[in-house]
Design goal:
The longest helix is centred in the first third of the chain and has 18 residues. The chain starts with a helix and ends with a strand. It contains four helices and eight strands; from the N terminus they run αααβββββββαβ. Removes the formyl group from the N-terminal Met of newly synthesized proteins. Requires at least a dipeptide for an efficient rate of reaction. N-terminal L-methionine is a prerequisite for activity but the enzyme has broad specificity at other positions. GO terms for molecular function: peptide deformylase activity. Keywords: Hydrolase, Iron, Metal-binding, Protein biosynthesis.
Length: about 200
């Protein structure tokens, strides 16, 4: 049974045992584009990936299933070498603790996503990045573009163009890296992990 056949079973919920870790060759392959119209299997896979992200952000479900919290997941992390990513970025409470008007600033399953254009300015998360496929802390600035324009298809085959900046741009770049065989620490300066490029934006 393939990894995808197992994951798309009606009774299956993705957990940490489904996620492959660094050292697995699938994480270093360039994933294949999916063809449209999408197969039912690829649509269900996208829905299951989004369900995982929702569960990982729900304290009760995360504890029950033993999940690490995540805001993005790429099919290669499930040992499925396809260009499919899911992103679920929650909006935070305001300074007075009021819930946000919209729960998420970005929630989408993207098929064949790619970066069309990007800013000259670099950006990095001040706290560094983590990854569900990397079970260790890797310190340093992961240098990315502060703004990107991306193109992707939804499950119905509709093409979308999206401009992203700040944290959302970082999340999507991290996931697109996965479908290109790149892991976040490849972008850390090996000699000086906290080196800043000219006018680099540090995102808190």
């Amino acid at each position: 049974m393939s990894a995808q056949d197992k994951i798309i079973k009606a009774s299956h919920m993705i957990d940490m045992t489904d996620i492959i870790r660094e050292g697995n060759p699938t994480l270093r392959q360039e994933a294949k584009e999916v063809e449209f119209p999408l197969s039912d299997q690829d649509i269900i896979l996208g829905e299951k990936m989004m369900q995982f992200l929702r569960n990982s952000q729900d304290p009760v479900m995360a504890e029950k299933l033993g999940l690490r919290g995540g805001v993005g997941l790429a099919a290669p992390q499930l040992n499925i070498s396809k260009r499919i990513i899911a992103v679920l970025v929650p909006n935070l409470e305001d300074t007075e603790g009021n819930p946000p008007k919209e729960a998420f600033s970005l929630q989408e399953v993207m098929y064949n996503p790619k970066i069309l254009a990007h800013s000259v300015q670099d950006a990095a998360l001040a706290e560094g990045e983590g990854c569900l496929s990397v079970d260790r802390v890797v310190e340093g600035y992961v240098v990315r573009h502060s703004r990107v324009t991306i193109e992707y298809f939804d499950k119905d085959g509709q093409k979308h163009k999206l401009k992203l900046k700040g944290y959302n741009a970082i999340v999507v770049q991290h996931e697109i890296d996965h479908i290109n065989g790149i892991i976040f620490y490849d972008r850390i300066n090996a000699k000086n992990p906290f080196a800043k490029t000219d006018n680099m934006l540090l995102i808190p």
